[in-house]
Recover the amino acids of this structure.
């Protein structure tokens, strides 16, 4: 992370966090989002699919463009969109494409059509295959947090496959419970999905922290259920948000010293 980004994040924290600090020493349960929190797109697969549309990029371009798209997509959740609607996923892909290096054969309109086509292609591939890239040091971090006595729970907007997905990347045994919006019937930011997770896990909101990558889904939703929230921000894209930020899940270990 650059010095400029570090300074900016420090100033954001100093300005906004006085009333939203997380009581790490009191936490007993951690809720985790899945997409872009524990796993990401298989970026090589996405790169190959984009090549079919004459879009040239490398994996780092894709990784950076995806993170840059999150604030725009999150803001759209203030409307009637949810993170699982077709229109939201299409918006997410479109904004991600707009954040890639300029493409000689494409403009904003043509990239919108590509995003529409990608939704169909990725639907055919399936969520479990698409979101199959385990993020760095996630298994080790989750195991360490569990060894420190914390209860771990998945709370994800998904299509009924999130338990299969985390099993496919060998994370399932690290979680006490897996809450999938399709199965529960409520999607973040609806606080009822978090309340359901609290009931299933036996956790108390004041000793629970939710970790995710979308402010309006993860932070707003968790807080509506009385739960603390941490927003992941790997590149310093979130400006003027009233919550604590971390670059990734492994950064959590700094808050929970070992035995």
């Amino acid at each position: 992370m650059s010095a400029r980004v570090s300074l900016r994040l420090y100033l954001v924290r100093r300005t906004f966090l006085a009333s939203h600090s997380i009581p790490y020493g009191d936490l007993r349960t951690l809720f985790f989002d899945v997409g872009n929190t524990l796993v990401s797109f298989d970026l090589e697969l996405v790169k190959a699919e984009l090549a079919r549309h004459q879009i040239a990029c490398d994996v780092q371009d894709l990784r950076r463009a995806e993170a840059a798209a999150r604030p725009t997509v999150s803001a759209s959740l203030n409307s009637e969109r949810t993170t699982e609607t077709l229109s939201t996923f299409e918006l997410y892909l479109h904004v991600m494409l707009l954040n890639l290096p300029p493409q000689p054969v494409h403009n904003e309109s043509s990239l919108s059509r590509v995003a529409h086509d990608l939704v169909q292609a990725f639907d055919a591939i399936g969520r479990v295959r698409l979101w199959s890239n385990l993020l760095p040091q996630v298994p080790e971090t989750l195991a360490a947090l569990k060894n420190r006595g914390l209860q771990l729970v998945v709370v994800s907007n998904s299509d009924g496959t999130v338990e299969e997905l985390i099993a496919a990347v060998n994370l399932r045994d690290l979680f006490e419970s897996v809450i999938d919006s399709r199965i529960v019937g409520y999607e973040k930011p609806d606080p009822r999905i978090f309340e359901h997770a609290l009931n299933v896990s036996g956790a108390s909101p004041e000793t629970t922290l939710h970790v995710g990558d979308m402010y309006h889904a993860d932070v707003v939703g968790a807080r509506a259920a009385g739960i603390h929230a941490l927003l992941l921000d790997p590149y310093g894209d979130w400006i003027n948000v009233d919550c604590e930020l971390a670059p990734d899940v492994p950064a959590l270990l700094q808050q929970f010293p070992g035995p």
The two ends are 29 Å apart (CA to CA). The longest helix spans residues 59-76. The chain has a mean pLDDT of 90.
